[in-house]
Design a protein that fits this description.
It is a single chain. By secondary structure, the chain is an alpha/beta fold. It is 38% helix and 22% strand. The chain contains 23 helices and 19 strands. Strands 4-8-9-10-5-6-7 form a seven-stranded antiparallel beta sheet.
Length: 578
């Protein structure tokens, strides 16, 4: 009797109806009791409430669609009038469309236009937002027509991932050989299927979106994945925080790191083969934080060094100065700028031009980012004693013609590099300074004698990367004349012969920008500049003399790109300082 009473009590208990049911009751299309019965039936049959509603005939699909459109103030669409062949398939995972019975109709700025029969489904809205990192604008469609369209276009999640890269994916370095004996208990984390699929999809998406870095960041109550696209970090996904340890283990194993060591930073590399000809290298770095290991993956595309000097964005006179310097038999060429400003690509572009059968080229980097056949590349290893200085000393015994040092960090490295430049070798390197004139004073502060700087350095290039305006959607901008003059334009330049442009945003770009363009200050060391260096002149004196010799500052070089319509004034002001 007790069991029967309990069953009766459950049947008569109030039911928490979904928003769809409440909307139908308020519209007078369904009675409370009928709605509760249908909801209980759907729960027991493990079907959706909307399927039970339309399947039982309680509400027709057309009536339901009109009611939802009125109740939620959402537009109504007839899917019979839609050209289904032109519907976008790449904006949302097909599995999500299948699971939540939705169809993506298009994209409006940073929002998806999605057809649904149930706009009250918050779970579907949140899932779509999470997967696409865009807002959702509902459009109401009849459930039977929607269901038919979803079933026709449904594909599995694995097929969708395969389609992104043409179904030809090979992770060359994905191996479990690096797992230590003490970490055997963690191997189950490595092969966790959802984690593997998630990581693969993030890597493929990053390549497709032309990202330079992926950031996997654990926090106390959330976990986020961000991509650096055109120099700007964008949040792409927010997976469950419980995934952090399994994801870290997976990345560390395929990068040949020690997955049992979580207390110290580690570095590793892995490869992704996309198609028969293209291989992408990834540089991986882990960092222990308060709530887990933060992992940053740098995407290293070997093709970036083969773009050619014209693709980097040098102006004709800047290109001529650089080519003249690298054709010299000896001397030092320095490339300066902050992290991520494209210094390595600039150096490797020069090396690619010099890479001939009769030339011996050696590089020392930490670590080597771009693989260039014909160049002897060395990764420095401070723990093993292979420092930049040690590598340079060894290079000088290897009969080199051209030496590239990843970065001059200390006096010892600088001293050896300068001696190499003074004794018949062309030396290229990087320094972290704000512009070309301050590079010379930075070297002086490191302890290098003025006569050594004057006799060895032949050219300094400072550079920045500015986001390039999307050619499809950029629009003319009205900027006050005073603002233009304050930015650095001369009055005679504001003659109306060119147009200021601003970012707008479209489906082909990222908030109005697509790709990046280089901004350069190319300063050859002339005899007059050598005299200023020898008398220990200041960076201001050097900058004044360089300007008199026709060397543009970074700001003026950026303003020239604005006049060409390549970037916006606000972007130049953000990346340069004057």
């Amino acid at each position: 009797m007790a069991a029967v009473d309990t069953a009766i009590h459950r049947e008569n208990a109030p039911v928490a109806l979904p928003g769809l049911g409440r909307a139908l009751i308020l519209a007078g299309k369904l009675e409370q009791k009928s709605a509760e019965e249908l909801f209980r039936k759907a729960s027991s049959n493990r079907t959706s409430f909307i399927a039970e509603l339309t399947g039982s005939g309680a509400v027709s699909a057309a009536d339901l669609a009109h009611t939802m459109s009125a109740a939620f103030a959402a537009p109504l669409i007839d899917l019979d009038a839609v050209d289904t062949q032109r519907l976008p398939k790449e904006l949302l995972d097909p599995k999500i469309c299948h699971d939540y019975r939705v169809v993506v109709l298009g994209k409006r700025t940073n929002r998806l236009v999605v057809a649904t029969a149930d706009p009250s489904d918050q779970a579907a809205a949140e899932k779509i937002k999470f997967a696409s990192q865009m807002g959702v604008d509902w459009v109401i469609a009849e459930y039977d027509k929607l269901l038919k369209l979803v079933e026709v276009h449904a594909t599995s999640a694995s097929e969708a991932i395969d389609n992104i890269v043409g179904g030809d994916i090979e992770f060359d370095e994905f191996t479990t050989e690096a797992v230590s004996d003490s970490a055997e208990s963690a191997t189950s984390e490595v092969d966790d299927a959802p984690v593997v699929k998630f990581l693969h999809k993030m890597l493929i998406d990053a390549i497709g979106m032309r990202a330079s870095d992926l950031h996997f960041e654990p926090y106390e109550h959330n976990y986020r994945v961000r991509f650096r696209i055109d120099g700007e970090l964008r949040e792409i996904a927010s997976p469950p925080v419980a995934i952090k340890d399994k994801l870290a283990s997976r990345i560390k194993v395929i990068s040949k790191m020690d997955i049992s060591e979580k207390r110290v930073p580690q570095d590793g590399k892995m490869k992704l083969k996309v198609g028969p000809e293209r291989v992408i290298d990834f540089r991986v770095s882990t960092l222990p934080t308060l709530f887990g290991e933060k992992i940053v993956i740098r995407i290293l595309d070997p093709n970036s060094a083969k773009l050619g000097i014209d693709a980097l964005g040098y102006e004709p006179e800047e290109k001529e100065r650089l080519l003249k310097a690298i054709s010299r038999p000896y001397g030092m060429i320095l490339v300066t700028g902050p992290t991520g400003s494209g210094k390595t690509v600039s150096l490797y572009t020069c090396l690619n031009l010099l890479n001939k059968p009769g030339v011996n080229i050696a590089t020392a980097e930490d670590p080597s980012e771009i693989n260039l056949p014909g160049v002897n590349q060395v990764n420095v290893n401070d723990k093993a004693g292979l420092t930049f200085a040690a590598a340079l000393k060894s290079f000088l015994r290897q009969d080199p013609d051209i030496i590239m040092v990843g970065e001059i960090r200390d006096l010892e490295t600088a001293d050896i590099a300068i001696k190499a430049a003074q004794t018949g070798h062309l030396v290229m390197s990087t320094l972290h300074t704000n512009d070309a004139p301050t590079t010379l004073t930075r070297m002086r502060n490191m302890g290098i004698a003025p006569f050594n700087i004057a006799s060895s350095v032949i050219l300094i290039t400072a550079q920045r990367l500015a986001r390039r305006l999307c050619p499809n959607c950029k629009a003319p901008a009205e900027i006050p004349k005073k603002t233009m003059l304050d930015a650095g334009f001369q009055p005679d330049e504001l003659d109306g012969s060119w147009i200021n442009y601003r970012p707008v945003g479209c489906s082909a770009c990222n908030n109005g920008y697509k790709g990046r363009v280089g901004i350069y200050q190319v300063m050859p060391i002339t005899e007059e500049l050598q005299r200023i260096i020898l008398r220990d002149g200041s960076a201001l004196e050097i900058a004044k003399q360089a300007q008199a010799e026709g060397v543009r500052s970074l700001r003026l070089s950026g303003l020239h790109k604005v006049k060409q319509g390549l970037t916006s004034l606000e972007e130049v002001l953000a990346v340069t300082n004057e």
